[in-house]
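Journal club prep, notes for RB
We'll compare a predicted complex against what the paper describes. Inputs for the adenosine-5'-diphosphate case:
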Amino acid sequence: MLKKEIRDILEKSKKWGWVLEPDAQKIFSLYGFKTPKYAVATKAAQAVSMARQIGYPVVAKIVSPDVVHKSDVQGVVVGIKDDETLIRTLARLSRIDGFVGMLIAEMAKGIELIVGAKNDFQFGPMILLGMGGVGVEIYKDVSLRMAPLKTRDADHMIQELTARKLLTGYRGSEPINLNALKKTIVTFSHLMMDMQDVVESVDLNPVMCTAKSCIVVDARIMLKK
Ligand code: ADP
Ligand code: MG
C-alpha cells in the first residue's frame, strides 16, 4: 500500500496527465530512493537563498505542466556556480510556456543509466535497464524483465548489457556500486507494482551511479488517461 502522501501527489497530478518533476522527486524520496537536494523558486531572491543553502554548483530546471522534455526547450542548465548565472537562468526559464517555477537541485556525479518501466496491459510493469545518454537511443543496449524483481533478476539485467564493463570498471575507471544499482532496480520494480493502477510509464533518466551510490536525478511519471 502506497503512503498517503504519494497517493495524494498522484491524485493531484491527474489534471496534467503526468507528475511534475519536483513532485516525482518527492515520490521517489518518500519510497526510499536517494534523490538530490532540491527546492523550487519563482523569485530571484528566493532562488539565491535556496541555491546557497543547497550549495553551488547547482542545476536549474524548468517546472511547467506543458514541458515534459525539459532539455528540448533548453529548460535544463547544469553547473551553475554563482548567483548572477542563477538569476539570469531564472529570467530565461520563466519565459518558457506554462512556467510555474524553477527547480534548483544539487549536482550529482557518476555514470548515467536509465531505469524505466512501461505498464503492459497483459504483463503488468515491464522494467527496463539501459545505459543513459546516447546508449539507449543509438545502441539500444537495454535489458527487460517483468516486475516484481528480485536481486538476482536485477543482477541478470546488468549482466545482459553489452556495456556492462563500463559499470564494473573499464580501463582504470572506478567500478560503480553494483549493490546500490541492484537495490535501485528492485525497489523501482516494487514501486511500479504499487502504482500500476494509475501509472502508464516511468522513466528515471538518468540514474547516476558512482562507487558509493546511485541517485535518481530525473524522474518522469506518466499517468493513465
Ligand atoms: P530532461 O530529461 O527532461 O531533458 P533532465 O532532468 O534529465 O531533463 O536533465 C538533462 C540532463 O542534465 C540529464 O540527462 C543529466 O545529464 C543532467 N542533469 C540533470 N539533473 C542533474 C543533477 N541533479 N546533477 C547532475 N546532472 C544533472
Ligand atoms: Mg531526463
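Talking point for the session: The mean pLDDT is 96.
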